[in-house]
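> example.struct
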């Protein structure tokens, strides 16, 4: 052990005594900076240290450190995490023991099945039921990670190339790209189950010893609050967990919410190893792998290659496309190998582009496009600093595109017909029960009153949606609504609302003049909202060619 200088910090001392000499000085300094930030995060945030640990090991420079040094760094971080905390010592011993394991098999039950995807229309689970659980994690002969996880009606698995999640009740399959695991994390699913062992501020009590499955086991009870506790039983010889239970307090007493039994190095059944995704009725791809976006991904690769030869724009650059081929694209595209900028595809008419981008920076119903500009066709890509991709950057993006096309945005004042919304104070229905006024027949196209979207919609969004569809051609001459109801509102950038301010599960399509009377009746029947008409001077935003 090296002698510690009295002026050294604990991090200084642990670096000098733990890290091997083959780490270059610049990497050593980077580690020092990262570790200080890591420890500050643990001390300042009330969340499990495991989550900080997982994030910290995403630090790119660790890839430059030799394998022996990486082990030293792992030991170093565990020294920080486990100092004078018995539960954390157990956690460190468990992860150390897991290094020798090739297969983890977890069986049992849970009242709260784990899954990654959902929609607001999914039926809530019955948490009074026990759902069978069967999880396999294993390392293949060529040292690749795999997992299979079935919890009640939800199945997840990773074949090394793709991650799948199947929801049996809806015959729906989600497909995404398999992601690399953080350095030092061998079995991520069992790691998630062990987070209780490492939570700071948890009271730990010994449960003694007992024989489980023919093995001597040591028990530990962990209490973070008076509302929840967990029991873990670790193999006395290997320190590996072999059983765990979680309980929470209900009005009528303690309720057990899950129980798991863990075995190691079992032979993984062929039915698990060779399992393939079902032919689901609905398949939803992550946009980065969806086949329909392959042309767009190729375009992103071309743009990334362009910026290998020239500097990236400080703010934005609008690049015309040479090809007129139509391509499905998602906003915003990531440039391969470039983290600082993203790409917005613009392959549409100016009117359609404005209707999409202006929603969050100009109120619906207040934007007018001059007749000579309406038919301008755009076939461009907007490369921008990533900060401009946020909703707060939309106004700047709009101004930049218009300026690049020789257009301008001006503000004028003129009289408008508006609806003043009033509320009669009746109790509002649960938002899940409020539907669009017209049921959509699958064989028919979109008609006024049918759902144009499903989600958690606030009153602000419904009023804005009415103005949006009424002013479909951007004349700024149709009805807009002024909210005097006093009903709390608010919405996210995508238009959806927090459930606390949601009033409807569907947003009706209010296109066409025939939907006006329908809207009045629907708002009154569903919410007790009526309207009075007034003519008032309002500010209108007009897009026109420069110099007019």
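> example.seq
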């Amino acid at each position: 052990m090296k002698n510690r200088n009295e002026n050294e910090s604990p991090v200084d001392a642990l670096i000098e005594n733990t890290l091997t000499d083959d780490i270059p000085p610049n990497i050593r300094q980077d580690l020092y900076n990262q570790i200080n930030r890591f420890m500050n995060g643990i001390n300042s945030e009330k969340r499990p240290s495991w989550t900080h640990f997982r994030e910290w090991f995403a630090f790119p420079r660790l890839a430059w450190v030799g394998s022996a040094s990486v082990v030293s760094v792992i030991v170093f971080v565990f020294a920080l995490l486990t100092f004078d905390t018995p539960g954390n010592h157990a956690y460190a011993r468990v992860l150390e023991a897991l290094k020798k394991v090739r297969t983890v098999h977890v069986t049992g039950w849970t009242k709260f099945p784990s899954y990654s995807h959902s929609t607001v229309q999914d039926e809530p689970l019955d948490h009074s039921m026990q759902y069978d659980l069967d999880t396999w994690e294993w390392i293949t002969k060529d040292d690749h990670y795999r997992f299979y996880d079935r919890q009640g009606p939800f199945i997840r698995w990773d074949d090394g190339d793709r991650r799948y999640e199947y929801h049996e009740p809806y015959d729906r399959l989600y497909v995404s790209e398999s992601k690399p695991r953080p350095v030092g994390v061998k079995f991520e699913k069992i790691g998630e189950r062990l987070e209780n062992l490492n939570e700071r501020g948890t009271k730990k009590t010994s449960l003694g010893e007992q024989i489980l499955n023919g093995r001597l086991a040591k028990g530990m009870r962990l209490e973070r609050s008076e509302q929840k506790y967990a029991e873990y039983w670790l193999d006395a010889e290997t320190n590996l967990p072999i059983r765990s239970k979680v309980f929470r307090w209900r009005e009528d007493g303690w309720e057990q919410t899950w129980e798991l039994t863990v075995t190691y190095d079992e032979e993984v059944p062929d039915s698990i190893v060779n399992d393939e995704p079902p032919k689901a009725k609905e398949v939803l791809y992550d946009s980065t792998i969806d086949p329909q976006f392959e042309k767009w991904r190729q375009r992103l690769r071309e743009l990334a290659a362009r910026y290998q030869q020239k500097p990236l724009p400080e703010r934005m650059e609008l690049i015309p496309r040479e090809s007129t081929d139509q391509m499905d694209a998602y906003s915003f595209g990531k440039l391969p190998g470039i983290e600082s900028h993203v790409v917005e595809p613009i392959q549409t008419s100016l009117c359609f582009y404005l209707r999409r981008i202006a929603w969050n920076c100009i109120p619906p119903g207040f934007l007018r496009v001059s007749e000579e500009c309406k038919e301008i066709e755009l076939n461009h890509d907007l490369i921008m600093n990533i900060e401009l991709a946020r909703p707060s950057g939309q106004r700047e993006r709009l101004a930049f595109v218009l300026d690049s096309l020789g257009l301008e945005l001006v503000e004028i004042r003129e009289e408008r017909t508006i609806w003043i919304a009033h509320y009669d104070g009746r109790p509002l229905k649960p938002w899940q029960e409020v539907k669009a006024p017209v049921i959509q027949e699958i064989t028919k196209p979109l008609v006024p009153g049918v759902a144009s979207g499903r989600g958690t919609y606030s009153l602000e969004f419904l009023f804005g949606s009415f103005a949006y569809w009424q002013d479909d051609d951007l004349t700024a001459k149709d009805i807009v609504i002024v909210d005097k109801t006093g009903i709390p509102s608010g919405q996210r950038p995508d238009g959806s609302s927090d459930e606390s301010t949601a009033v409807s599960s569907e947003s009706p399509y209010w296109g066409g003049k025939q939907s006006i009377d329908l809207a009045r009746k629907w708002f009154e029947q569903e919410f007790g909202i009526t309207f009075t008409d007034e003519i008032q001077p309002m500010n209108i935003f007009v897009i026109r060619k420069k110099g007019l």
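> remarks
The chain has a mean pLDDT of 80.
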